[in-house]
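Collaborator request, handled under Task 6.
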Amino acid sequence: VVIVGGGVGGATAARYIRMADDSIDVTLVEPNKEYYTCFMSNEVLSGHRTMESIKVTYDGLRGHGVNVVHDTVTDIDPAGKKVMTAGGQTLAYDRCIVSPGISFKDNIEGYDKAAMEKMPHAWKAGDQTVLLRKQLEAMPDGGTVVLAPPPNPFRCPPGPYERACQIAMYLQEKKPKSKLIIMDSKDKFSKQGLFTQAFERYFPNHVEWVSASNGGKITRVDAAAGTLYAGDTAHKADVANVIPAQQA
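C-alpha cells returned to the collaborator:
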C-alpha cells in the first residue's frame, strides 16, 4: 500500500493497516518531516497552548513498521499502479490511498498568497497559526478583529466559532477594549445554538456575529489597507482572519 499524504487521514490509515495485518508493506509519502495538528491549534491563538504542544513527528508510524518517505508526489499512474515523486522515486503499489488534505478555492477577490501573509487564514496549522497569534499580540487594546468563516462545505465546521471563543478569551483577558466581529458567508452554522449561548454568556462585549443576509459575506479584500468588503461596504480591521472556501 502506498499512501499519499501524512496528515490525519493518511497517518491513521497507515497505522491501522499495519495493526490489522503486519505482513502488508505500507509506504507513506509526505513532504514535511513534522506535522502540526489542526486539533487544538485554536488554543495557540488564545495563548493556552504552544505550537510545540501540537507538533508531532513520524517516529510513531515508523514504530509500527511504516516506511515513511519525505518527498512530494507529482503523479499517480493508476493503470501501471505506480506513484512518482519530485525526488525521482517510483513506488509500485497494489493499493493506493490518496489523502492530501484540503485546497483553497479562489472565492474572495484579492485574497491571494501575498494577502494570506497580511490576513492569515491559519486553517493549516503551522506558520499561519504563529502569524495570526503575533498579530493578535501586536494589536492595540481597542482594536478590531474580523474573522471571516468560509462557505460550506469546509473542514471542521465548528472550527471558526471555536476560534472566535478562543480569541475572545484572549481579548477579554489582555485587551478588554477590543472586539471580534464574525463576518459570516452563511446564515447558520454548526452548533449555532451552543456557540450563540457562549457568545452571549461569556463574551457579550467582545463578540458580534453578522450573518450573510445581514451583510456579513466578505467578497473582496484589500490586504495592504487592512480592509474587507462585503459587497460595496468596507470594514476596517486591525487583525483580519480570512478563511477561504475549500475543496478536497
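The cover message to the collaborator said: "The longest helix spans residues 159-174. Helices lie at 8-20, 42-46, 59-63, 113-116, 127-138, 159-174, 192-202. Please let us know whether this matches your experimental observations."
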